[in-house]
């Protein structure tokens, strides 16, 4: 197996977004220009892990680990560099030339997955072209325009049309696509004789993408709904690249927005997501026309801290909200909170936007957000006559079981007050009843930690006192070294200015090593790239040092006077460091010659030099 060349490694690394890769393992949120989250490499309560998507590297202020996408996987999964490169390539369906991979047969599934993805991409382009550029697509285009779809939205979601004429099969046959591949794609149905026919006919096509934005399936909406013998909506069957339980519509785009907003909106249908997108709500997702699944809950939990369930306000919509809350509460990660935004009965987000407009819809989402407890106070009324004492008692018993799991004493008191006022009850009596319910359910407020496993209720995570990030003090000399290296890496003029002095070298070994490796890097590369340079560093302490340098908040405009100040501070230390190194070498030689008298004298001189060095460090720190 030949060594993977640098240009292939660069192509693989530059083809992926480090935020997307790390986002699979760490919940990231936008913090200024960077993404931040809890470090996966050490225990912490407040985020100190930072990801810079522009420079494609990560750095932890707590444990000081740093690196690019390859080093992240190496640290996390304890694999070597080549294995990390292969994993990134395989995950993003990037071909590595045969001569650079193992001579052992490659698992056929990887090649099959790549081919199926290519097939779906071609189908999506064909359906999109038919919708926009052919007479056959005009009725479908007219339908979408009537539904409020703009040209921008149609292009954004790559919407298409599968005509009555079954054109996909001959299109692929013309391209010599193998029968078995087409059979496995889910794009065709198969009769008893094994003949394939286009699965989607006379349907508006909604491409379904995975988290990396690759088309993996389709959903087709019947254009002529008078064909009552056919289902109104038809989805692709499960295939090697499509698992409906693990797929969320628009997740590839929504997760990027969620890092900034801190939440995702769960809508019932694809059109709701698309219409909301057109109204500026780009963090909307939807399940695959089936019940919400625990796998989808897990994916959401890795993406955001809050899920807003936004379903129709009619009875089926409310029942769907109830099921979704129960599923999320049973399977959610500890940090995931649930909120409800319930639309007026009989209207979905798509219809709401068409009727009231984008601005009104955005205002509604922000103003009508409620806790799951508020939802159940209303939902549990359904089908009950609260003027009947028995039914009122049944309702109150159900509601108190919901309120029992509320963590905040203030919020608990607020709900009791609301019930007492509405039904003319004594609040203290309700409080006593609530305590009895909590005892029956085994809820101890003093010991309750994290989220309860109760099937209902809204719970707030308690993380304990805010943990202050420890800031490590560094000496004046080391700071000067970091600042100087930062400018040297990014500015060619500064690099030439410093290297013109052939006697210059850094005081600390790690910065001198970075300097020498950078010289080697620049001999092979014209421009500097953080992610690229990190591949030159095979030691974690050097990666951490570079991470610290990259995190420096320095002026973008270079001031050569500041550069010279840094050089002066460093060179002030250099003679003393050189004397210490020389004295240590002399002492080692005297000991090897068993010259006790000389060794004693050199030891005394070395101690004096070390004291001087320590005194200088103390002065710098102060």
UniProtKB/TrEMBL annotation:
It catalyses: ssDNA + n NTP = ssDNA/pppN(pN)n-1 hybrid + (n-1) diphosphate. This is DNA primase. RNA polymerase that catalyzes the synthesis of short RNA molecules used as primers for DNA polymerase during DNA replication. Monomer. Interacts with DnaB. The lineage of its organism: Bacteria, Bacillati, Bacillota, Bacilli, Lactobacillales. GO terms for cellular component: cytoplasm; DNA-directed RNA polymerase complex; primosome complex. The gene is dnaG. It comes from Limosilactobacillus rudii. Contains an N-terminal zinc-binding domain, a central core domain that contains the primase activity, and a C-terminal DnaB-binding domain. The keyword Cell membrane does not apply. PANTHER family: DNA PRIMASE.
């Amino acid at each position: 197996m030949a060594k993977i060349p640098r240009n292939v490694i660069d192509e693989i690394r530059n083809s992926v977004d480090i935020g997307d890769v790390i986002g699979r393992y760490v919940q990231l949120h936008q913090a200024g220009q960077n993404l931040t989250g809890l470090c996966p490499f050490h225990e912490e309560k407040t985020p100190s892990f930072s990801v810079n998507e522009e420079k494609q590297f990560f750095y932890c202020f707590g444990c000081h680990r740093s690196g690019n996408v390859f080093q992240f996987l190496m640290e996390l999964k304890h694999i070597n560099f080549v294995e990390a490169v292969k994993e990134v390539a395989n995950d993003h369906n990037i071909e590595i030339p045969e001569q650079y991979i193992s001579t052992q047969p490659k698992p056929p599934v990887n090649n099959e997955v790549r081919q199926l993805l290519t097939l779906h991409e071609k189908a999506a382009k064909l359906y999109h072209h038919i919708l926009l550029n052919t007479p056959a697509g005009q009725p479908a285009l007219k339908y979408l325009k009537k539904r409020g779809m703009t040209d921008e939205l149609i292009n954004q979601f790559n919407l298409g049309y599968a005509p009555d004429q079954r054109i996909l099969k001959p299109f692929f046959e013309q391209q010599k696509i193998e029968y078995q591949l087409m059979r496995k794609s889910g794009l065709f149905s198969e009769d008893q004789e094994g003949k394939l026919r286009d699965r989607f006919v006379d349907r508006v096509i909604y491409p379904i993408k995975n988290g990396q934005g690759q088309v993996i399936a389709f959903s087709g909406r019947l254009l002529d709904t008078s064909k009552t013998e056919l289902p109104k909506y038809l989805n692709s069957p499960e295939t090697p690249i499509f698992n409906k339980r693990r797929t969320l519509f628009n997740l590839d785009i929504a997760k990027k927005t969620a890092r900034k907003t801190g939440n995702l909106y769960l809508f019932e249908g694809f059109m709701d997501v698309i219409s909301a997108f057109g109204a500026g709500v780009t963090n909307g997702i939807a399940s695959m026309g089936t019940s919400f699944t625990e796998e989808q809950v897990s994916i959401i939990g890795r993406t955001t801290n809050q899920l807003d369930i936004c379903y129709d306000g009619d009875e089926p919509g409310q029942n769907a909200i109830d099921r979704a809350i129960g599923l999320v509460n049973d399977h959610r990660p500890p940090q995931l909170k649930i909120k409800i935004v319930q639309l007026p009965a009989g209207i979905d987000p798509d219809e709401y936007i068409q009727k009231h407009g984008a601005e009104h819809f955005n205002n509604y989402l922000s103003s009508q957000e409620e806790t799951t407890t508020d939802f159940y106070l209303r939902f549990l009324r359904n089908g009950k006559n609260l003027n009947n004492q028995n039914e009122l008692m049944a309702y109150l018993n159900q509601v108190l079981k919901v309120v029992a799991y509320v963590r905040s004493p203030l919020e608990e008191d607020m709900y009791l007050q609301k019930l007492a006022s509405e039904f003319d009850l004594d609040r203290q009596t309700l409080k006593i009843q609530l305590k009895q319910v909590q005892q029956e359910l085994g809820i101890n407020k003093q010991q309750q930690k994290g989220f309860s496993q109760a099937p209902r209720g809204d719970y707030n995570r308690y993380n304990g006192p805010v943990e202050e990030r420890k800031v490590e003090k560094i000496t004046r000399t080391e700071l000067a070294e970091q600042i100087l290296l930062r400018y040297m890496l990014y500015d060619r003029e500064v690099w030439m200015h410093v290297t013109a002095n052939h006697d210059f070298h850094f005081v600390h070994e790690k910065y001198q090593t970075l300097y020498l490796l950078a010289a080697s890097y620049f001999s092979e590369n014209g421009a500097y790239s953080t992610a690229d340079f990190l591949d030159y560093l095979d030691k974690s302490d050097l990666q951490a040092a570079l991470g610290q340098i990259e995190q420096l908040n320095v002026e973008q405009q270079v001031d050569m006077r500041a550069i010279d100040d840094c050089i002066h501070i460093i060179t002030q230390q250099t003679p003393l460091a050189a004397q210490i190194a020389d004295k240590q070498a002399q002492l080692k030689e005297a000991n090897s010659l068993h010259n006790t008298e000389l060794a004693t004298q050199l030891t005394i001189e070395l101690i004096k030099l070390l004291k001087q060095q320590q005194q200088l460090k103390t002065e710098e720190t102060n």
